[in-house]
Specification:
Length: 845
């Protein structure tokens, strides 16, 4: 399976993932002229063959949900590679029809192209394929007089475009590379199985209205069909993914494909030499098991700034191709750069492998203030996606530095320890993960350490004495003492003195706050998954929570007074205080319980963020309201084109939300809308359980709430596993109150389809409200009007009676469509009816 990695902090921009320098552009492999290298070089540079140049008319190519017409024009096919034609260039009249299968994908397509179904005429097109496309087109080919001139005119274009899919095609055609001693019958069968299910067609078309764009059909992808386009906006390059899906006829009902599952890595042992301020060299040993045989080539994600020197399997060198340059389409598909390892024979199902990589390069940069920036935090070792593995990490680095890594330190001290030997020329530390993790990382700096404890868990904060060079410094105005000799009435001169924060001064407070967060989340969601937590200062504004290790922005080490000096806005202070508990909550949501595909990634961010808000709610409830309101406002704010984040799409689009229209769409929607979705769900369950129990209000503590009870089940069942959106909501459905069962079905499909896979911010109001006197009391009847929403949106609307005191919950109405009637018995003294009195719904207000 082709690797399609989306890292936790990935961007839609096709910018380098490191700040350490210019990536190398040379091709590396086991040795020059080896079969795999020769095949790859042919695949990435193949040109057009004049002998395979024709006039074409009335031809078409059909794939599920995709129809391509080559109505009339000239076409030149590429030269044979190992007896196979793998590409062509067309010029003439053509048309493409691509039909997304559902409303989400059609809305996404419409955002970028202005049409829900892609129907575009094109004048030129480059085709790349690994199947029988050449044979499909042969009945429509006729000899042409201008074959040589046509192939010559487009040959360099074709050779340049050949690079785009060379690595992908290597997976297909490497299966046919020679094997010493020949193939066994079992190996032949596994190759046949792998090849029969491997079809790819890439079209790069020059559209009449849309310009240059790509369409892919690839049975080995996480999703089989996708289309998109490179866009440059304000000096930044984006790859806009218009649509991505697996056709209904290709869906087997099996679990959706995940990158790297065909060959699983059970254990990493990595020995690293760190040479500040820029370089690492490493030797990585990977223990792997083949779950799906027949392949000759495996892909590993590794930063382009790291060059592989050797790869061997079981002590024997193997061929590899290291980090070829990639354009925006490949970044959109794979995340970062790749290393292809080509095995001497097809992999066998059940086979166990040990791979060794020797590599190094510049992935660090000096940020100042005793801080280093690790520019390849997720790609400093060769990996095959976000799958659970054990890690054994050894580091060697100079004295005076402190290194902190994923896992539990089993040996070694460093500069932050009182027992560190200042006379040593090298420090050594050894870290081992306590349970399988999706990621491993390290951070390095001239840190001071502070320690706190909660139960058996040790929490350590590592911070430098100074901020990084790029940190914005405020100034504090000081008044000079009186000048006795100054003439009367002369104003005193103002002195400007920089206020320079020192993170190390506040490290103990950060450690203490971290311990409180661990205690809070442990009480709600179950025990903290590891024995310790390291909080390490990282330059910049971005923070990341990894298993047992948090890369914490320098801003999170500010005292409240220092934060106020930088910004007087109370919201900025609240958001800064949210950072630490958010990243610690990732220890449960994202690290212990993972996410399966990019469509489920929102769960990690939104649930970690909402968990942090629940903790903030116990201390500063006013700040929670500030933050939620800001999220609502961001979703409604128009960009320069008048588009709002509602137009970006639902949370289930994941990293696709980052685009030229919305450069920060993923963060804004997954944090903002995603957090609101969990806020809504929590209060829906609270209200329903309270009414079902016969109480007007629910006075349970957080740990006893139905929302939290369900999350504890999630933690118990999916610890060490990846979860899908549907699996998450299935847990909530198990104890779903009757009042939330739409049309009598014990299901939250209405919430998932309308709110998770939708993007509406509806508006609700009451109309035709009447109070009716009954023999045993008073009843209110009325209608809930729902606007700015799809016709099929179902919403749980809490209805309140306003009496002399605070609003009293009458019940929840599942409003569907423009108007939904309701009726409730109301208490004596009810003056009016209000909806969503405590603003627990994501609405446009």
């Amino acid at each position: 399976m082709i690797l399609t990695v989306a890292s936790r902090c990935a961007s839609g921009q096709s910018a380098p993932d490191s700040v350490a320098g210019t990536p190398p552009q040379t091709l590396n492999s086991g040795s020059p002229g080896t079969p795999a290298q020769a095949l790859y070089l042919n695949l990435q540079s193949v040109g057009l063959d004049p002998a395979h140049t024709f006039h074409i008319r009335g031809a078409s190519l059909d794939r599920p949900d995709l129809h391509v017409s080559l109505e009339d024009g000239e076409i030149s096919f590429t030269s044979d590679i190992a007896g196979r034609v793998t590409g062509a260039f067309f010029e003439g009249d053509g048309e493409l029809l691509l039909t997304p299968p559902n409303q989400v994908e059609r809305a996404s397509m419409a955002l970028f192209t202005g049409m829900a179904i892609l129907e575009e005429r094109f004048s030129t097109g480059y085709l790349r394929f690994n199947d029988e496309t050449f044979a499909e087109l042969q009945p429509y080919l006729r000899a042409t007089d201008g074959a040589k001139e046509f192939s010559s005119r487009w040959n360099e274009t074709a050779r340049s475009l050949a690079q785009l899919d060379a690595l992908r095609l290597l997976a297909t055609f490497s299966r046919a590379l020679p094997v010493a001693g020949g193939l066994s019958e079992a190996a032949r069968k596994q190759i046949q199985i792998a090849t029969s299910s491997d079809r790819m067609l890439h079209l790069r078309l020059q559209g009449q209205k849309l310009g240059t764009f790509d369409v892919y059909f690839d049975t080995q992808g996480v999703e089989e069909i996708w289309a998109g386009q490179t866009k440059n906006v304000d000096g930044a390059t984006f790859y806009d993914l218009w649509t991505s899906f697996t056709p209904i006829q290709s869906q087997t009902g099996a679990t959706q494909k995940t990158e790297g599952e065909d060959v699983a890595t059970s254990r990493y042992k990595i020995q690293v030499e760190v040479k500040p301020p820029t370089t690492i060299t490493a030797e990585a040993f990977l223990q792997m098991e083949v779950r799906q045989g027949g392949e000759r080539t495996l892909y590993f994600e590794l930063s382009r700034f790291l060059q592989v020197k050797e790869v061997d399997v079981g002590g024997h060198p193997v061929e590899f191709i290291n980090n070829p340059a990639m354009d925006g389409t490949q970044l959109a598909r794979r995340g970062n750069d790749l290393v292809a390892v080509v095995f001497p024979e097809p992999l066998r199902q059940g086979e166990k492998l040990e791979l060794r990589f020797l590599y190094g390069g510049e992935v660090l940069s000096e940020a100042g203030g005793g801080l280093l920036y690790v520019g390849a935090r997720g790609t400093w070792y060769p990996s095959r996606g976000l799958l659970m593995s054990n890690f054994d990490l050894e580091f060697h680095y100079p004295p005076g530095w402190t290194l902190v890594a994923t896992g539990k330190r089993v040996t070694g001290e460093d500069a932050a320890s009182d027992s560190a030997n200042s006379g040593r020329t090298e420090q050594d530390t050894h870290w081992v993960t306590e349970r399988p993790s999706t990621l491993a990382g390290f951070n390095l700096g001239r840190y001071e350490r502070a320690t706190a404890r909660t139960g058996e868990v040790k929490v350590e904060a590592y911070a430098s004495r100074k901020m990084e060079k790029s940190f914005p410094h405020s100034t504090e105005v000081l008044i000079s003492p009186p000048d006795i000799g100054r003439p009367a009435g002369t104003p005193r001169p103002a002195l400007q003195q920089p206020v320079i924060p020192s993170p190390a001064r506040n490290a103990q407070e950060v450690a203490d706050n971290g311990a409180r967060a661990v205690e809070f989340f442990s009480r709600l969601f179950g025990p903290y998954p590891y024995s310790s937590l390291e909080l390490t200062q990282m330059p910049g504004r971005i923070s990341q929570g990894w298993p047992g290790l948090v890369f914490l922005s320098s801003f999170a080490f500010l005292t409240p007074e220092e934060a106020t000096e930088l910004s007087k806005n109370p919201l900025d202070g609240a958001m800064n205080r949210l950072t630490l508990p958010h990243e610690i909550a990732h220890q449960w949501w994202g690290d212990l319980v993972g996410w399966r595909t990019y469509r489920d990634q929102w769960i990690s961010e939104a649930l970690a963020n909402y968990s942090a808000l629940m903790m903030m709610e116990t201390e500063k409830p006013g700040e929670v309201r500030l933050i939620l309101e800001r999220y609502r406002e961001e979703l409604l704010e128009p960009n320069k084109n008048g588009e709002t984040l509602r137009d970006a799409g639902p949370v289930s689009l994941g990293l696709r939300l980052n685009s030229s229209h919305f450069p920060n769409g993923y963060e804004a929607v997954s944090y903002g809308r995603g957090t609101w979705l969990f806020h809504m769900l929590r209060h829906m369950l609270l209200d329903a359980e309270a009414k079902q129990a016969g109480h007007a209000e629910n006075a349970r503590s957080e740990s006893e709430e139905p929302f939290v009870r369900a999350l504890r089940k999630v933690r118990e069942r999916y610890a060490g596993k990846a979860i899908t959106t549907r699996e998450l909501f299935a847990v909530f459905e198990e104890d779903l109150p009757r009042s939330l069962c739409y049309e009598g079905h014990k299901s939250l499909d209405w919430f998932v389809q309308g709110w998770v896979e939708g993007a509406a911010l509806p508006h609700f109001r009451t109309q035709n409200v009447r109070f009716v006197k009954k023999a045993n009391g008073t009843e209110v009847v009325g209608v809930i009007a729902q606007k700015d929403a799809p016709q099929d949106l179902v919403s749980a609307v809490p209805v309140y009676a306003v009496t002399a005191g605070k609003p009293l919950l009458l019940g929840t109405v599942l409003a569907d469509g423009p108007e939904t009637p309701f009726h409730f018995a109301v208490p004596v003294g009810t003056r009016k009816i209000v909806l969503d009195a405590y603003q627990t719904m994501l609405t446009s207000k």
